[in-house]
What does this fold into?
Amino acid sequence: MTATTTVTPNAVLRVPPASPAAAAAYFGASLAFHADVSDVASALAADGDPGFVVIDTRSTASWDQGHVPGAVHLPTALIAEQAGQLLDRTVPVVTYCWGPGCNGATRAALALAELGFQVKEMLGGFEYWAREGFAYETWEGSARRDADPLTAPVDSDGCGC
It folds into this structure.
């Protein structure tokens, strides 16, 4: 009689991948809820109306330290009170906060959606906006950092994705 050896899959495959149809539904839905920093920057830099408004959901001190040019400052705590006066419900909104370690943009997106706005969250937030080398505004004026080679390709217009 021969003993059968059971091979335990590695941590990646311990839970098998979803079916292609389930994966397509999930990733398609994810793109409906999220926008990439580079895509937002590209749309804002193009000629004409990008078709959305960017909302910085952080405090005034954070806003003053740096924010996306053209963004509207609307802290999450003030959304219920001020969104109706500051935003057009027919224009999609893209929210951002500090970065991937902060869920402020997610909370703001939820608050806006509950008020009837179409909304996406900008993945990476202000941190990745600055790390990818895009210009930003501070209380002192315009600023820009060199692109971090770990987040953006050096001497290239984009990552190719």
Remarks:
- The chain has a mean pLDDT of 92.
- Strands lie at 34-36, 53-56, 72-73, 93-96, 119-123, 136-138, 141-143.
- Residues 41 and 47 are 12 Å apart (CA to CA).
